[in-house]
């Protein structure tokens, strides 16, 4: 039996897959052309195959819960991307602005032998601003996230462009989504840097490494969602991400892991 992730190290990966799963389930509902209800609730689950820490070359499988409660598509309580609440102060047919606060999980040094001696990265609240703009079959998105607590104390921005088409009389939705991510000095340093104290404690005898801000990664994901019934949706997604710059040159990646990061997701959700 394939082992599953445990501890805080699995939770950043869960944040990714929850985002993917919820977006694809919502896309399947949109494919049916249903208007948003006053209240909607989504519950589901799945499984994700992904690295056990960002930059690792060790892969694990973990279960994925999917939970979201929304009101008029204006306010959402969700596990998508981590436990969070979001509100949309401005929304048109093609433009959507979303503001919120979510909890981002940290990293546990016990998740992988490469992390031993580096200490844990505590998670914390993150302020999030999102901008989405639809141009025909392409959805352009920009997310800016700033840590309000925890150890990272960083700023990160992610831009993506999703191209989607509907198949099988609108019951299936196929998407291709490239993205690029930028992070500041604090985020890069806490995630990929190694201080002198950490180097002295590290089990792998690392040298000190300063990771500066810049482009952190670029990647692409291919997904498909299928509407089994008006309420039940199946989803699958595979993704590739390439770490860049100081993230890729970190000993945690270059020596102990890999800049090439792969993932796969299968899931099922029910919406009412």
Helix-and-strand structural type? alpha+beta
Helix content: 10-25%
What is the distance, rounded to the nearest whole angstrom, between the alpha carbons of the first and last residues?
Answer: 34 Å
Query: What is the topology, as strand order, of the major beta sheet?
Result: 1-2-3-4-5-6-7-8-9-10-11-12
Shape estimate: globular
- Mean pLDDT rating: 88
How would you describe what is shown here?
Helices cover 17% and strands 49% of the residues. It has helices at 10-31, 185-192, 196-201, 245-249, 251-254; strands at 39-51, 59-71, 75-78, 84-91, 95-104, 124-135, 138-147, 155-167, 172-183, 214-227, 232-243, 260-271. The protein has a twelve-stranded antiparallel β-barrel. It is globular, with a radius of gyration of 19 Å.
Task: List its salient traits.
globular; 272 residues; 49% strand; alpha+beta
What is shown here, in short?
With 272 residues, this protein is α+β, with helices and mostly antiparallel strands. Helices cover 17% and strands 49% of the residues.
